[in-house]
Model the fold of this input.
Amino acid sequence: MTTEPLIRNISDTALWVAMYRAWETEQPSPVFRDPWARRLAGARGEEIMSKIKVAHRHAWSYTARTYNIDSFVTQEIANGADMVIDLAAGLDTRPYRMRLPSSLQWIEIELPELLTYKDEVLKGEKPVCRLERIPLDLANAGARRVLFEELGRAAKRAVIISEGLIVYLTADEVSNLARDLAAPASFQRWATDLCSPRLLTMLQKQVGSQLGQAGAPLKFAPEQGPAFFTEYGWTPIDVRSMLQTAAALKRLPLLMRLFALFPDTKGTKPKQIWGGVVQLEKRWAPTTT
Ligand SMILES: C[S@@+](CC[C@H](N)C(=O)[O-])C[C@H]1O[C@@H](n2cnc3c(N)ncnc32)[C@H](O)[C@@H]1O
Done:
C-alpha cells in the first residue's frame, strides 16, 4: 500500500503559506487581513501545519514577508505602476484584500492545476482591480519570454513580485529568469524574498526532507546576497530583513527578539544569517541567450 506524502508537490507549499496568512488574520490586531486564507489553505494546509511542528516557529517570517511585499506594492503604485506581475502567485489574495486602484492590472502567473483550484475557491468573489490569472509553468523559458513581451507591451510601468519561488530554483535558473524579466522596457522593479546560505542550511535541516520528497528541494541562496542580480540588469535598492520587520511588527518569539537587537543588514548588504525581501531596480537589459 502506498500512502500519499503530506506535501505532494511544489504547489502544496502554497496551501502551507496560506495557513500562515490565516493565522496572522486571526491575531487580535492583525498586520493584514486575508479572510480567504483559511478556506484556500483547506484541510491539507491545516494538516501540513499541524504535522510539521517546526512550521509554527516560522510564522513571524511569513507575516514579515507579506507585510514587506504589501508595502512594496503600495509604494510602487504611488510611483506610477500600472501593472503588478505576481510570479508563482500561489493562493495570494492581494487583488482582493489590498486597497488598489481599480484601473491597476494585476497578473497572476501560476501552474495550471493550482489556478484551477484557486478559481474554484474564489468563485463569486470580486477583486478590486483588473485581475488576470495566467496558467503557465515558469520553467518553460520560451513561453515565459513570449508572455513577458506581451505583458511588457500592455504596461507603461510594470512591477514584479515573487515570494517563495526563487528559493526552489538553481542559480542558473534564477539568472535566466532575471535576464528574461529585464528584457521588456516597461518592467521596472522587482521585489523578491531571498535567503542567505546559512539560513538555507538551517531550513534544509528543518523542512528539507519533506520538501525534497515533494520534488521541491530548497536550493537558492547566493553567496553574494542581493548583489547576485546586478549582473542581470537588476540593482538592489533596498533590503528589508524579515527579522527586523517582524521585531517592528511585534511578531517575534522571545529568543528571536534577542537576535533582533543586532542589525542583520548593512545598507543593502545582508550579514550571515539573513532572510529578507530585496527590492531591485532595472538599470539595463542584458542580452538573452
Ligand atoms: C511557497 S509557494 C508561494 C506561493 C505564493 N507566492 C505565496 O507567497 O503565497 C510556491 C509557489 O510556486 C509555484 N511554482 C513553483 N514552480 C513554478 C513554476 N515552474 N511555474 C509556476 N509556478 C510555480 C507553486 O505552484 C506554488 O504555488
